[in-house]
Every structure is written in C-alpha cells, then in structure tokens.
Amino acid sequence: MEIQTITLMGGYGKNENKDIVESITLKMGNIISIVGPTGSGKTTLINDLELFANRNTPSNRKVLINDIIPPEEMLNDPSKNPIALITQHTNFLSDLPVNKFLKMHASIRKTGQAETVVKETLDFANKLTGEPIIESIRMTELSGGQTRALLIADAVIIGNSPIILLDEIENAGINRVMAMELLKKYKKIFVFVTHDPRIALFSDFRIVMGNGAIQKVIITEEEEKKIAEEIKEIDDLMLDFRKLIRAGENIREDVFRERLKKINSKH
Ligand SMILES: Nc1ncnc2c1ncn2[C@@H]1O[C@H](COP(=O)(O)OP(=O)(O)O)[C@@H](O)[C@H]1O
Ligand SMILES: [Mg+2]
Q1: How far is the CA of 40 from the centre of ligand 2 (A)?
Q2: Is residue 116 classed exposed, middle or buried when 0-12, 13-18 and 19+ CB atoms within 10 A define those classes?
Q3: Which of 217, 197, 212 has the alpha carbon at shortest distance from 16?
Q4: Residue whose CA is closest, atom 16 of ligand 1?
Q5: What is residue 143's three-state secondary structure?
Q6: Is the pLDDT of residue 266 over 90?
Q7: Which residue ranges have their beta carbon within 6 Å of ligand 1?
C-alpha cells in the first residue's frame, strides 16, 4: 500500500483536557515538529502514531492511514509497517557486526544490491554522527550517537520507511543540521519532537502540546520562513564557534564581528 497520508483523530490529554483539533492530516513530503514543555505529551503523541492508536490508548486518539483504519498486517508484519520511530532509547537487538547486520537486513528487504545499499547506509550514518562507525564492530558496541545514526540511516535507506518519527534526537549525539539536510532529499513524512528553532521553523507546521493535549497547530507562514533563513545562519555561526572551542582555539573579536556583519548585510 502506498502511503499518502496519516491522520490523527483527536482525543484527550491529562485531566480530560481535550485536543483542540478534531483531526490533523500529515501528507507525504510533510515535515512536522511537535513542541511543548517536558511532560506535555509529545512522546505520547508520537507513540499513538506508531501504535496506530484506535481509541485504545490513554489518549483515546485514533490513527488512519490513507483515510482508513490501517490493516492488521501493518502492525503485525514489520516489513509492512510504514512507521519507523527512533528515540534516545531505541536500540538494535543484535550483536552481529555492523556490516553483516546491514547486509542481512538489505537482503531481507530486497532494497537493491546489498553491498551498495550497505555502503550507502554507512555513509549516511557517518554524516549524522561525529564518531565514524567501523563496519566490523559489533552492533552492541556502538555508542549512543552511533546507534541512533545507524537506526535513522537503516530506516531511511534499507527499511525505506515512508513515515519517520524522531523523538528528541538532538540529545542523542546526532548532527541535527546534517540530519535535516540529508532527510530533505527523501520524500517521506517526517515528525520531529524538537525545540530546535531551526527544525521547527523549517517544518510545514508544528503541533504545540500542553497538559497531554494538542493546544495549537501553527502553520509556518512567510514571516517565520524568512526568519528561519536568518536563524540558520546564526545557528551555523554557533556551530562553527563550538568547533573552535572544542579544538582549543581562541575566539577573536574581529572574526566574530565580521561574521555578524555578513549575516546582517544579507537581510
Ligand atoms: N493524552 C494523554 N493521556 C493520558 N496521559 C498522558 C497523555 N499524554 C501524556 N500523558 C502522560 O503524561 C506524562 C508525560 O508525557 P510524555 O508524552 O512523556 O511528555 P513529553 O514527551 O512531552 O515529555 C506521561 O506519564 C504520560 O503517560
Ligand atoms: Mg518525551
């Protein structure tokens, strides 16, 4: 079944707080952010999506795929499940060496020529993490960041999952800017739980959570899109200075001023 949309029918948050919308439909190609303070129900919301909730979770929400209740096999057969959820705690249940695991997964999924796909997956993962993955290392020996990077790459390239849910990956040792840049190239539905302005303002819309319920849906209009461009440059500046600090360098005022001037002159 080719995925076109996933629809979330509203339910309840904590203390009978009602979701403000009756339903939200995410279309193929959309990027969505979920924002809100800790404990506001962000993880619960994406778990509802992943579980294909059918008025059977504490929120009483319901999920439709292409406007219908998803067929049983989508939940029961991993190869037919269109959703990949990656959190700070997701792990691989395998202690095979990385290349063997990826090769096996690629051959089961029949995603192109195994060798090529494995290489593509590793390259993708290595752009997301600062610590390159050695392909002969065992899956269980990967660091947190490496594991999350490989999970994302595996879901995008080998699993070819049309719907990818990412729960606060910026805290999981992932290069979020690189993740955004790379993911843009793939036509999927991406849902980011994030507070990162760069990701939130790049999204088509963001869902604001509070007290377990959906409080607001903010569509990213022209004004915010313009700001997003500037935020991107400020964020790049911060990332570059972070690199300098990490490398033990001094930060020079003239370099700093020059950089700020460049950003200002563009807008
Ligand atoms: N719709 C809801 N109905 C009932 N309980 C909820 C709901 N949303 C969140 N909760 C509860 O509130 C707590 C925090 O939710 P969580 O989704 O983990 O928040 P966040 O990810 O924003 O920090 C959890 O114990 C969760 O079970
Ligand atoms: Mg959470």
Answers
A1: 8
A2: exposed
A3: 212
A4: 41
A5: coil
A6: no
A7: 12-14, 36, 38-44, 58-59, 209, 212
